[in-house]
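Posting this for the archive.
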Amino acid sequence: MNVAVTAGTYPSLVLNADYRPLSYYPLSLWSWQDTVKAVFLDRVNIVSEYDVSVHSPSFDFRLPSVVALKNYVEAERNPAFTRFNVFLRDKFECQYCGSPKDLTFDHLIPRSKGGQTTWDNVITACSPCNLKKSNRSWQEMGMRPRQMPFNPSVYDLHNNGRHFPPNYLHESWMDFLYWDTELEP
């Protein structure tokens, strides 16, 4: 069945050469255009296809839904310190009250008192808790974090990413994805 392909549709799940996703959160997806390019450059193996084709006067090509890299990509051992990665480490919850709304990050030892912006001093906090704590330590305020900050591994972040499956998962991807069906309270 030939269907006109529109931009933003038919993404491909990208697997490493060991047939595991490159990442869970965000899920390793390529646009159909990038996937087709990778196929023609012989960088990937097609694992599964959609029932949709793109065509030109000289060829007809079914769009891949799952591809695997031909060369293994070594995962970074130490993830970058970013706001997103701090939120992911802390499962997108305020570490004081558990709220998933209006998130910021908080320095346990305030910057005004010499605290550094590092994995070991920054946690996710909602705006109300962050404003309440202000420039005081958590001990002064009696606001013990649910989880003390730590330097996560890539594995920790991938594992936490499994708690947040995307809104759309194509059936051909399911054999390669392992999502937590029970989220922690």
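Residues 1-5, 181-185 have pLDDT under 50 and may be disordered. The first strand starts at residue 12 and ends at 15.
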